[in-house]
Amino acid sequence: MMLDNKVAVITGGAQGIGRATCERFVRDGASVVIADVADEAGAKLAEALGDKAVFVHTDVTDADSASGAMQAAIDHFGGLDIVVNNAGITRDATLKKMTGDQFDAVINVNLKGVYLCTQAAVPHLEARGGGAILNAASVVAHNGNFGQTNYVATKAGVIGMTKTWARELGRKGIRVNAVAPGFIATEMVLTVPEKVLDGLRGKTPLGTLGQPDDIAAAYAFLASDDAAFITGTCLNVDGGLVL
């Protein structure tokens, strides 16, 4: 029960890594606000998790919607201790073919959304005397990735914001860290051909894809008191990929 009596908002919490994180946090004793635009999946997950979870339709690109997710933690569970900025999208294309709309869509969700949700959360975390902010980065932020100008830019930006906020908020007792997943076996990844999956495994020193639970475990650790002296870091959970 690493997170006993803690309250968390998890964006993009209805599916994939977000869903695994909601499930892990509840197992570890936390109450969670599942913040997502996927209404059906979010409602079903909240029902499955019981009275320790509530679903709130949340568009992270909208300041009022982001604030509403944080307020839901106060209204339903009496406070806010943890924010997991997990929501993210891809709109891949090479530089020559990428449209302005593709670029802007990814920036708005993956970068501005993290900014808006964190800004909305900080007053509530301060009211609790501290807390933890966890941001979804990616190993592509370290090395780049073909066809992902927009996505890589957001994930590198998230790491930079993480370090900046760690400096700004540490004196308030708020720790800010990022997690950088490698190739993870989410529903989206598992739809690609097996030959491609074999190639991804071959690039990873541990020889396998990660599981959403692997990322959820990293979030749970960084959110817990076991990580009380860790802030401003980016933890790669990638099977050694960036080696």
Description:
With 243 residues, this protein is α/β, with parallel strands linked by helices. The protein has one domain: 3-Layer(aba) Sandwich (Rossmann fold), CATH 3.40.50. 47% of the residues lie in helices and 16% in strands. The chain contains 8 helices and 7 strands; from the N terminus they run E-H-E-H-E-H-E-H-E-H-H-E-H-H-E. It has helices spanning 16-27, 39-49, 63-77, 100-127, 140-143, 149-169, 194-203, 212-223; strands at residues 7-11, 31-36, 53-57, 82-85, 131-136, 174-181, 234-237. A 7-stranded parallel beta sheet has the order 3-2-1-4-5-6-7, with helices on both faces. Helix 2 (39-49) links the parallel strand 2 (31-36) and strand 3 (53-57). Helix 1 (16-27) crosses helix 8 (212-223) and helix 4 (100-127) runs parallel beside helix 6. The longest helix has 28 residues, at 100-127. It is globular, with a radius of gyration of 17 Å. The protein starts with 6 loop residues before the first strand and ends in a 6-residue tail after the last strand. The model has no long low-confidence stretch (mean pLDDT 96).
Descriptive key words:
7-stranded parallel β-sheet, 47% helix, 16% strand, 243 residues, alpha/beta, 7 strands, Rossmann fold
Q: Class by helix and strand content?
A: alpha/beta
Rg value: 17 Å
Distance between the termini: 33 Å
Give me the CATH fold name.
Rossmann fold
Oligomeric nature of the chains: single chain
Number of DSSP E strands: 7
The topology string of helices and strands comes to: EHEHEHEHEHHEHHE
Whole-number tally of structural domains: 1
